[in-house]
Amino acid sequence: MAPLSAPLEVGFDYTRSLGPVLGRFMTGLRDRRIEGVRGSDGRVHVPPVEYDPATAQPLSEFVAVADEGTVESWSWMPAPLEGQPLAHPFAWALVRLDGADTAMLHAVDAGSPDRMRTGMQVRVRWTPEPVGSIRDIACFEPLEGPAPPRPDPSGGEPVTMVTTPVHLHYEHSASEEESRYLRGLAEGRLLGQRCPECGKVYIPPRGACPTDGVPTSEEVELPDRGIVTTFCIVNVPFLGQRIQPPYVAAYVLLDGADIAFLHLVLGCAADEVRMGMRVEAVWKPREEWGTTVANIDHFRPTGEPDAPFESFAEHL
Amino acid sequence: MNTDIAVVGFAQAPQVHRTSGTTNGVEMLVPVFQELFATTGLSRREIGFWCSGSSDYLAGRAFSFVSAVDAIGAFPPIIESHVESDGAWALYEAWVKIRTGEVDTALVYGFGKSSAGELRRVLALQLDPYAVAPLWPDSVSIAALQARVGLDRGLWSEKEMAEVAARSRADGAANPHAQLGGAVDVAALLEEPYLADPLRAHDCAPVTDGAAAVVLAAGDRARELCERPAWISGIEHRVDSPVLGARDLGRSTSAAAAAAAAGIDGVTVAELHAPFTSQELLLRRELGLSDAVRINPSGGPLCGNPMFATGLTRIGEAAARVMDGTAERVLAHATVGPALQQNLVCVMEGRS
Which residues of B are less than 8 Å from A162 in CB distance? Predict the structure, then answer.
């Protein structure tokens, strides 16, 4: 049977502080003005660099440059990807703005590759609502005809932060061993596997035994009860939390397993949970089961005598 | 201090468009390690140092390399390190570790499941996060900007680029690990549509899942483990500015500097980490390789590009030409970053 796989979406806003050089550059963009920085050799860097490429000294002499420039190289993007400046076909270009000595990478809205050539003149198309980001430059456009009316500078406090949304899409695959475990959970079974060399039983089973470097192989069905080896009391609220703190996250070592896995221990006061405490699984209603360890809602104390420390000291 | 260090073993996973395995590489790495232990006669417990190269962004999760450590059997504790880069840079770290005299063997591995995400977009996250990455320029488009610079300047032609692709595909046919290989007609390639003008599909390395591993050893230990070790006579890595518009994309000064420092005179085989045809032509010029130097007899990255293992594979493939006696002195090149930003050159030779 093929391993289980599912889409994995990774998304976050990357928020960065800017510092004096990039902060001034982004503030300028917000105000529809492009500024570079002069290096020790007199060259004007746009976008500005914080440190001189030749001497590594900090740079601070800002130089205003034009919002028109020359294409130094270009490539054509027939099928734009998510997040790129334009949703219709466009050119990527290295544009050296008039007054600058280095080129900046951006998009050129040219309509067709036939209109692109190295050496062509382009001008900035500003975005209607600048915020202090490289994307305040919506794109460049071929310098033809009269310049459009220049929007008024927006002004405001200096820009000190930039936020970049990141969205990536993956197809995540579980290993063959994990897939057997996850399919077992959908049937209410806890399936571990035994390492053929050292004999240790892992749940979830592993693509390779961390002691021997060989895949686990022999299937072992484990009971849904065991002991708490170690635990922590969660007192801190955080985004996405499903239970009101305080609560206990614990390593549960099922009877017959050689590795503990993380789950919740509920059903008693948090301060009553202890190492060696015997616990059993509380399953969700069968109609809610899927290929997930969340089929077990939590573990609860069984009331049996605690396991002696020596019996699990090797598993901490 | 150990001064004589050699590659004594190399193994790689099949280069395939997509595996059904996990992004932590364990399934690909376990057989690769078993092959290496079989060919060198080493056991896992005899490896002095382990070093790997991979990328969390490729895997789409944090600390993905930690799971890969399972494949090497990390208990009882081992000496292990990781670089968020191609495995070639992990090999450099291992070479330094052996130089210190602390260990006399090292196993270096690199792996990547490029197919798990959208590779062209994932690689945008290695760019300047302020003025470049927020535009999401993709890796193929950036290579196309570099290809255009050379075309405009007359450094290479689209026909020469297609000839690189055709030669690579022909060589790939003889490499059992290669993803692509076979006879292609240059004129027909030039009729294909552009993927990112001026690059066509054949100008670009295929998206590839894979893994590679190399064993290094010092002095007498190397001679015990391998009949004809590939002795490292020079290894250097250099870096150019990450600012694409501030460097001459028609040059790779860091590759030239690394080659000069490593000392590449007399090499007859060069495995170049050029995921784009134009980059191979650029590197040939920058390294000053004559027509007599055999480039990428393995088929090279254009026939299989397992991200974060491709550079290490170049070292392994070049070393294999020494170990099997078909070459005396070889060059391996590895790169990371956009448009050949960072470059590593490793020169290896046989010794009687």
Answer: 130, 134
